[in-house]
Amino acid sequence: MKKTYTVAVIGCGGRGYSYTNLIMKKDEFNVTAICDINPEQLEKINALTNLTPDAMFCTEEEFFKKKRADVLIIATTDSHHVRQCILAMELGYDVLLEKPISDSKEDIEKICYKNFYRVIKE
């Protein structure tokens, strides 16, 4: 039997919409939560996912209060990637991080170290 992976998406603009549109066509994935600061973007993606209002978030603070899926797609503005990726890894998500990760070597190293210590704990 195939495993079904639950997926959450933060950043529901063009990139987030494209990823969601693709994964909704696959039986192996089920979108369980979406987050964007723009309610119109949430509604646009929700036309694909048909989520209930309690699975739609307008603030990352509310969204990151708990793990909402197996995988998190981070498709937000580039300047938010590192912070959100670290929060996601701390919650135990597997992450698909839209590029660029960062233009800062130090920020990229933060993600690498955080992931390294996560793998060691497992």
Name a few traits of the molecule.
single chain; alpha/beta; five-stranded parallel β-sheet
Q: Percent of residues in beta strands? A: 15-25%
The tally of beta strands, per DSSP, is 5
User: Can you tell me the residue ranges where pLDDT is under 50 for at least 5 consecutive residues?
Assistant: none
- Our measurement of the CA-to-CA distance between the termini, rounded to an integer number of angstroms, reads 25 Å
Structural class: alpha/beta
Q: Characterize the largest beta sheet: strand count, sense, and whether it forms a barrel.
A: 5 strands, parallel
Q: Radius of gyration in whole Å, from Cα?
A: 14 Å
- What does the oligomeric state look like here? single chain
- Annotation field: number of helices: 5
Order of helices and strands: EHEHEHEHEH
Q: Which percent range fits the helix content?
A: 40-55%
| Strand numbers in spatial order across the main sheet | 3-2-1-4-5
CA-based shape: globular
Mean pLDDT: 90
Walkthrough of the structure:
- The chain has about 120 residues and is an alpha/beta fold.
- About 45% of the residues lie in helices and about 20% in strands.
- It is built from five helices and five strands.
- It has helices at about 15-25, 40-50, 60-65, 80-90, 105-120, and strands at about 5-10, 30-35, 55, 70-75, 95.
- Strands 3-2-1-4-5 form a five-stranded parallel β-sheet, with helices on both faces.
- Helix 1 links the parallel strand 1 and strand 2.
- Helix 1 runs parallel beside helix 2 and helix 4 packs parallel to helix 5 (about 105-120).
- The protein is globular, with a radius of gyration of 14 Å.
